Amino acid sequence: MPQQADSYTLIAPSRRLLAGLVLALSNFMVVLDLTIANVSVPHIAGNLGIAPSQGTWVITGYAVAEAICVPLTGWLALRFGTVRVFIASMVGFGFFSVMCGLSPTLGMLVACRLGQGICGGPIMPMSQTLLLRIFPPEARGRAMGLWAMTTLLGPAMGPIIGGYISDNWSWHWIFFINLPVAAICTFAAIALLKPVETDRRILPIDRIGLVLLIFWIGCLQIMLDLGREHDWFADPMILTLAILAGIGFVAFIIWELTEEHPIVNLRIFRHRGFTAGVLALALSFGAYFASIVVIPQWLQTSMGYTATMAGIVTAFTAMAALTTAPIAARMVGKVDPRIMVCGAVLWLAIMSVWRSQWTSGADFWTLVMPQLVQGFAMPFFIVPLTTITLSAVHPSETASAAGLQNFLRTMAIAIATSVVLTFWEDAQKVSRSEIVSTLQPDAVQSSLSGAGFGMDQIRQIIANTVDQEATMLAVDHTFLISAFVLLFAASVIWLSPKPKPNVDTSAAH
Question: pTM value?
Answer without folding.
Answer: 0.76
